[in-house]
């Protein structure tokens, strides 16, 4: 099935391994949608948490999803540079006019100077035991952390210097 059409506004749904809905981003504009890659953007979009809390994103963001990688990347455009929040997750699926993925707790935060920090290892360990992640999944997820870190160091894909700027310029044409 092909991906969503450019310009289309869709919802993003994040789940946990046990199938429970974790978080929903109400509206993201598709900038590129293929079978393997979806690039979207949003700004001041409503986010609903599984506990019912609702909040609004504070800055424009470019979202990168790939069907073959166990992570997604959100580049947030702030006054002092681009900050990246990378979710270690299942590859996305596009279904029912929504992007869906399983969030596996581990996150990598990347700063404008391209230094980075692995986050939420304690939460990952807790959920790994609570939800009985198979050993092979643990290996897949940590291998993808390594791949993601390599991309950051190499300035590859969404971490390349021009990526966020080019896609943000495209986003502005839809606003």
Automatic annotation (TrEMBL):
Active site as annotated: 23
Domain DUF402: 18-156
rRNA-binding as UniProt keyword: no
A family per Pfam: DUF402
Cofactor list: Mg(2+)
InterPro entries tied to this protein: DUF402, FomD-like_sf, Ntdp-like, SA1684
Binding positions (Mg(2+) 2): 105, 107, 120, 123
EC number(s) recorded for this UniProt protein: 3.6.1.15, 3.6.1.6
Matching Gene3D superfamilies: FomD-like
Residues spanning the membrane: none
Reaction(s) catalysed by this chain's protein: a ribonucleoside 5'-triphosphate + H2O = a ribonucleoside 5'-diphosphate + phosphate + H(+); a ribonucleoside 5'-diphosphate + H2O = a ribonucleoside 5'-phosphate + phosphate + H(+)
Residues the entry annotates as binding Mg(2+) 1: 87, 103, 107
Keywords: Hydrolase, Magnesium, Metal-binding
The keyword Magnesium is annotated on this UniProt entry: yes
Record-linked NCBIfam families: PRK13662.1
Function: Has nucleoside phosphatase activity towards nucleoside triphosphates and nucleoside diphosphates.
Family: Belongs to the Ntdp family.
Protein name: Nucleoside triphosphate/diphosphate phosphatase
Source organism of the structure: Halobacillus amylolyticus
Taxon lineage: Bacteria, Bacillati, Bacillota, Bacilli, Bacillales
